[in-house]
Amino acid sequence: xxxxxxxxxxxxQVNYFLNNICQNFPNFAAGVIADYHxxxxxxxxxxxxxxxxxxxxxxxxVKQRKFVDNENYIKIVRTLNEDxxxxxxxxxxxxxxxxxxxxxxKSIIKRQxxx
Length: 115
Description:
Blueprint: E1 2-4, E2 7-9, H1 11-24, E3 28-35, E4 40-45, H2 53-61, E5 73-79, E6 86-93, H3 101-111
Antiparallel strand pairs: 1-2, 3-4, 3-6, 5-6
Helix pairs in contact: 1-3
């Protein structure tokens, strides 16, 4: 179980949420949900992605320092809750093949009630 701001969320619920996001983008490379300290809550990383979960979690919260070379990837960072304490970072392989996926991503994040 994961404790997040007075709610208990199961690992299955968070994995299901992240899997929905992964299926939205055919060029998905990696995704991490992290708290405001940079600790990973859940991650999904493809086998060929060269970075670790901890580096991706830090990439979600830090704005001025780079932990991942964005040359081959498109980085998407979104806040998942109202107080900006839970962040989602997604890396997509270039070139961007699914522009409509951004609208779907926005609706997936709005519909979630986990965070």
